[in-house]
Automatic annotation (TrEMBL):
PANTHER family: 8-OXO-DGTP DIPHOSPHATASE (PTHR47707), NUDIX HYDROLASE FAMILY PROTEIN (PTHR47707:SF1)
Gene from which the chain derives: nudG
Similarity comment: family membership: Belongs to the Nudix hydrolase family.
CDD domains found in the cross-reference section: NUDIX_MutT_NudA_like
Name by which UniProt lists this protein: 8-oxo-dGTP diphosphatase
Spans traversing the lipid bilayer: none
Organism: Gimesia alba
């Protein structure tokens, strides 16, 4: 590890009926064009669980409840060193139809489609975990 700052990241892996809430990173940011789960940098005294819930609300408008931490991953990208805390979350209240509510650019993807999407490198173990845990065999 080098001397640059490491960012603690809380990520909301929001699951509903074997579908996951996923967006695409916008142009002009690191890893632009890659798929992502809602999440972001933790505030100084914020837990990764609280961060995941807060970031999901800010990015998608959807209130979620964190269930448990699925995975912890450390990764060094060219732009930053990150400590990723992936939290399994569920919607706090279900609108009549989750698929039609406005989620600010995020959309529901069935678990089977996750391996076909282009996620950042640090998400590889998470995608494998979700596919094995939520796919119907």
């Amino acid at each position: 590890m080098n001397s640059r700052k490491t960012n603690r990241i809380g990520i909301a892996v929001v699951e509903h009926q074997r579908q996951f809430l996923i967006g695409v990173r916008p142009a002009g940011v690191a890893l632009a064009g890659f798929h992502e789960f809602p999440g972001g940098k933790c505030q100084p005294e914020e837990s990764t669980e609280a961060c995941a819930v807060r970031e999901c609300k800010e990015e998608t408008g959807l209130e979620v409840i964190a269930i448990n931490e699925l995975l912890y991953e450390e990764h060094s990208y060219d732009h930053a060193d990150v400590k990723l805390h992936f939290w399994l979350c569920r919607p706090a209240q279900l609108p009549s139809d989750l698929t039609t509510c406005n989620l600010q650019g995020f959309h529901w993807f069935p678990v089977e489609s996750l391996p076909e999407l282009q996620f950042p490198e640090a998400n590889a173990r998470l995608i494998d975990l979700l596919v094995s845990a939520f796919s119907v065999s």
